[in-house]
Specification:
It holds the Pfam family Carb_kinase. The protein has 286 residues and is an alpha/beta fold. It contains 12 helices and 8 strands.
Length: 286
C-alpha cells in the first residue's frame, strides 16, 4: 500500500484496514517518499496505520515485488515529491498488478497506452471526466450531465456507462472501475461487468479508500491470474464493488439498499467487510 499522506493520513488507515478485512494475508505499508511534516498535531500516515493495525509490515519505500499494489488514495499530485513520483512510475512500468486511485490517476492519464503493469483505475465521475479529456476523446455524451447533476446513475442505463468505461479503457489500455450508484468495470479488450445500484449511504467521504483496499486485496489474492490475464480485472472490480456495497448495507442496516437504516462512516464500512464476505459466500452457496 502506497496510500495516504500528511494531509490525509486517514486514507492510509481506511485503505489498509479494508485490505486486511478483505482477506489479504499480509499487508505492507510504504510511506510516501519526501512527504511533508505533519501539522495540527496529526500523525504521519505510517504512525496512524501502526496505531490501528500493528500487524501491518512497514518498509522504507523500496520496490520489492509483491502480489499487488494500491496507490494514490489520499494523495495530492500537486504536493507529491519527485522521489515518490518516480517510484510510482516504476510501479506502473513493473510486472505487479496495480490498483490506481485518486491522486495517482493523473499518472495513468498522462501516459495513455504506455502502462506496462496490469492496472485498474478507480475514477469517480469528476475524475473520469478529466481522464476522458486527457485522452482527447471529445465531448462526453449528453447523458453524462445526469450523473453530475443528480449524483447517481439512476437515470442512465448501464449500457451507456459501460460504453463510456470501455472507451476510456481502450484509450488508456488499462482496466477502468467507473464508480457510482451503478459501478462498471471495463477492460481494454471489451470485457465489462456492472454492480449496483448501491445503497446511497455509500456516498460518504473515505468510502473510495475502502473500495481501493478491497480491490487491492482481491488483486493480491489472484495475482498470478491477473498477471497472466489482466482482463480478469473486470471480475475483480465488479466483485470489489459488490462486497463494498454489501458491507455498507450491513453497516447502515439497509438490506434493501434503498436508503433506509442510518448514516455510516467509511470505517464502519471497512469493519463490516468480513460479515459481508460471509453473507455473500452463503448467498453464492445457496
Amino acid at each position: 500500500m502506497r496510500t495516504g499522506s500528511t494531509q490525509y493520513p486517514g486514507a492510509a488507515v481506511l485503505s489498509v484496514t479494508a485490505a486486511w478485512r478483505a482477506g489479504a494475508g499480509m499487508v505492507r505499508y510504504s510511506p510516501p517518499l519526501g512527504d511533508s511534516t505533519p501539522s495540527l498535531g496529526l500523525p504521519s500516515p505510517a504512525a496512524a496505520v501502526l496505531a490501528t493495525h500493528p500487524e501491518t509490515v512497514f518498509d522504507g519505500g523500496d520496490l520489492r515485488s509483491c502480489s499487488a499494489w494500491v496507490i494514490g488514495s489520499g494523495t495530492d499530485p500537486l504536493l507529491r515529491a519527485e522521489p515518490e513520483h518516480k517510484r510510482l512510475l516504476k510501479l506502473l512500468n513493473g510486472a505487479d498488478p496495480v490498483v490506481v486511485d485518486a491522486g495517482a490517476l493523473e499518472l495513468v492519464g498522462a501516459r495513455k497506452g504506455a502502462i506496462a503493469a496490469p492496472t485498474i483505475i478507480t475514477p469517480h465521475h469528476g475524475e473520469f471526466t478529466k481522464l476522458w479529456r486527457s485522452c482527447g476523446l471529445g465531448e462526453l455524451p449528453r447523458w453524462w450531465g445526469d450523473l453530475r447533476d443528480n449524483g447517481s446513475s439512476d437515470r442512465v442505463g448501464t449500457s451507456h456507462l459501460a460504453e463510456a468505461a470501455l472507451c476510456l479503457a481502450g484509450c488508456l489500455r488499462v482496466s477502468v472501475l467507473l464508480k457510482g450508484s451503478v459501478t462498471v468495470a471495463a477492460t481494454p479488450n471489451g470485457r465489462h461487468l456492472a454492480s449496483g445500484p448501491a445503497t446511497p449511504w455509500l456516498a460518504s467521504a473515505g468510502t473510495g479508500d475502502v473500495l481501493a483496499g478491497i480491490l487491492g486485496a482481491l488483486a493480491a489474492t489472484h495475482s498470478a491470474e491477473v498477471r497472466a490475464d489482466p482482463e480478469l480485472f473486470a471480475e475483480l472490480g465488479a466483485t470489489a464493488a459488490t462486497l463494498h456495497d454489501a458491507a455498507a448495507r450491513l453497516a447502515a442496516d439497509d438490506p434493501a439498499g434503498n436508503g433506509s437504516g442510518h448514516p455510516i462512516t467509511a470505517l464502519d464500512v471497512a469493519a463490516a467487510i468480513p460479515s459481508a464476505w460471509e453473507s455473500l459466500r452463503k448467498l453464492d452457496a445457496g
